[in-house]
Amino acid sequence: MSKPFDATLNSMIDLRPGEWAAHFARLAGIPPGPSVPLDTDLATTLTADKVFRINGERPSLLHLELQSGSRLGIPAELMRYNTLISHQHGLLPVETVLILLRPKALAGDQTGVYQRFGVSGNLIAEFRYHVVRVWEHPSQYWLDGGVSLAPLSLLTDEADADLDRALVRLQECLRDHRVDETAVKSLLGSSYVLCGLRYERERVAEMYRRLSMLLEESTTYQEILGKGLSQGLSQGRTQGVREGQHNLLMLQGTKRFGQPDETIIRALHAIEDPARLARLGERILEAADWDDLLRGE
After folding, report:
1. Do the beta carbons of residue 181 and residue 225 sit within 8 Å?
2. Given 3-state DSSP classes, what are the helix, strand and coil percentages for the chain, each rounded to the nearest 5?
3. Do the bridges between strand 94-100 and strand 113-117 make them parallel or antiparallel, or are there none, so unpaired?
4. Which of 138, 264, 269, 288 is deepest in the core (most CB within 10 A)?
5. Beta bridge partners of 125
6. What's the pLDDT at 224?
7. Residues contacting 28, CB < 8 A, separation 6+
8. Which H or E run includes 181?
9. How big is the chain by its Cα radius of gyration, in Å?
10. Whole-number Å distance between alpha carbons of 81 and 180
11. β-pair partners for 51
12. Looking at per-residue confidence, does 211 or 142 come out higher?
């Protein structure tokens, strides 16, 4: 998983893991059944992104890897993950799905088939995996996958052609599913961060400003979210988005630098500009510690 966005994607998956398991198991041809998230530590230097046990007619494992950056060699790593996961879980069959989040993530060797050859040119091993290019699917494909996958609809080519309409459709999806306020805040925050994968910051900021006006006019949506969130969205690019960004920074920073002290926590929560919060999220990998992260801004 691409590190600047792993907290965002994890929050989406952890919100409703069963939706992700069901959606991609169906794509991988795994018989349907209840899903159970599994430990992703492979007892080596490797950690898989997400692993599920699918307890269907033929129990099997589903392995998801999400990528936003491009590099060669990922298929070889996927085969290694696949083998280790199978051995850790009683040699159950494993279906691996590589989820590419944007066109820049696509590398020339990500064909869905990885082959290893011996010194004489003979085929030693062949590994097949599934490749999902998020942007190639229509927006409705991700909206139909469940609310936790719905923010991916903003990364499609269709959304790129009319980003305002794509965000409205995301909002309608959350409304139609009667998503509670906490989940809406989390998903709107995730969608804001994910948009940074594909769009210029100014375009995203303007889009969310227009969303705030749409929500202010929607009495149906206010019933679900309450007036407070709707007003928060209209006051400087949404309180919900800011809270989502604050939470993501805390998750990312804690994973990288350790638990912040009260001074750092207060300093982070004092930042209200979504653009600045987005820049901090981009700098997480470059900073040496919490103080360095905040000094860089």
Report:
1. yes
2. 55, 15, 30
3. unpaired
4. 264
5. 116
6. 43
7. 62, 95, 97, 130
8. helix 181-195
9. 20
10. 36
11. 63
12. 142
Rounded Cα–Cα distance for residues 30 and 53 (Å): 11
Determine the Cα–Cα distance for residues 195 and 102; give it in Å rounded to an integer.
10
Longest dimension (CA), the chain: 70
List b or e across 144-182, with b for residues whose CB sees 16 or more CB atoms inside 10 angstroms: ebbbbbbbbbbbbebbeeebeebbbbbbebbbeeebeee
Q: Are 56 and 12 in contact (CB under 8 A)?
A: no
Whether residue 236 is predicted with pLDDT greater than 50 in this model: the reply is no
Rounded to an integer, what distance in angstroms lies between the CA atom of residue 165 and that of residue 251? Answer: 30
Is the CB of residue 56 less than 8 Å from the CB of residue 33?
A: yes
Q: 228-257: buried (b, 16+ CB within 10 Å) or exposed (e) per residue?
A: ebbbbbbeebbbbbbbbbbbbbbebbeebb
Instruction: Tell me the pLDDT of the chain averaged across its residues.
Output: 83
- What are 62's two structure tokens? 């589903």
Task: Report the distance separating Cα 51 and Cα 61, nearest Å.
Answer: 7
